[in-house]
């Protein structure tokens, strides 16, 4: 009986996805590509590393257009993907497995129907796209400067969280104790104000792309929340407060000392 128990335990272990150990040199190389993580509390940085290992074991990366993402690309993407769910858990990303990586920008075919019922087809340059119920599609640049300030991974994984409500509309499923009424009131007001500023061609710290629709506003605000927290807190303090409650993190409180 003991031998059978040991055999079953070993068999179950073989069925579980193994967590790849991340070499320290590779972890540091990826961490250095993400300067906004400098100052993250030590305990959170350790938890992020453990979650990243789990994420890499669960998700399947594939390249496109003849490109195959290397270990640095996969790890850098995985760290950023885990950041929004650090306090929420990887169960938020269940139900899909694929991450498709392009070598730079890619083109997405679009179809729209105008008010007269005429269908128009066009192509749109993109850095990322999150498919509802499907994979996340991302671009990768060897030089971080080529992203021109965009944080596409955080952006697309914010969309994944938004989609948990049944569709990306800027209203993700809220936690117990959070008010949907207050969320909608404050996000609607901030979005209207932001669109007005963009229409007036004001310079904004938030990417003007956030004015596209409420879902993009939520995703872009998520980018800024993690990468330039104080800017979001200054511009829209109520939005910052809601995102603190939603992500269960407070990046504006991080110090400026690297704690990886």
TrEMBL record:
Entry coiled-coil feature ranges: none
Name of protein: Zinc-dependent peptidase
SUPFAM superfamilies (alphabetical): Metalloproteases ('zincins'), catalytic domain
Lineage, highest ranks first: Bacteria, Pseudomonadati, Pseudomonadota, Betaproteobacteria, Rhodocyclales
Species for this entry: Viridibacterium curvum
């Amino acid at each position: 009986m003991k031998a059978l128990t040991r055999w079953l335990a070993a068999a179950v272990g073989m069925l579980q996805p193994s967590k790849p150990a991340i070499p320290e040199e590779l972890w540091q190389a990826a961490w250095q590509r993400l300067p906004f993580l400098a100052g993250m509390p030590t305990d959170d940085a350790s938890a992020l590393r453990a979650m990243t290992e789990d994420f890499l074991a669960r998700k399947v990366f594939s390249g496109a257009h003849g490109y195959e993402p290397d270990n640095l690309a996969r790890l850098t993407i995985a760290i950023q993907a885990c950041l929004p769910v650090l306090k929420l858990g990887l169960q938020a990303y269940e139900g899909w497995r694929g991450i498709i990586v392009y070598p730079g920008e890619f083109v997405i075919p679009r179809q729209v129907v105008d008010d007269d019922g005429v269908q128009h087809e066009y192509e749109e340059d993109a850095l990322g796209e999150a498919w509802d119920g499907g994979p996340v599609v991302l671009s990768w640049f060897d030089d971080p400067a080529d992203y021109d300030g965009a944080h596409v991974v955080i952006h697309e994984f914010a969309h994944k969280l938004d989609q948990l409500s049944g569709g990306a509309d800027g209203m993700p499923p809220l936690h117990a104790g959070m008010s949907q009424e207050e969320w909608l009131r404050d996000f609607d007001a901030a979005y209207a104000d932001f669109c007005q500023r963009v229409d007036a061609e004001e310079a904004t710290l938030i990417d003007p792309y956030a004015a596209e629709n409420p879902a993009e506003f939520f995703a872009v605000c998520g980018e800024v929340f993690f990468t330039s927290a104080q800017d979001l807190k200054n511009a829209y303090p109520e939005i910052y407060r809601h995102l603190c409650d939603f992500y269960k993190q407070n990046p504006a409180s991080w110090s400026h000392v690297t704690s990886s």
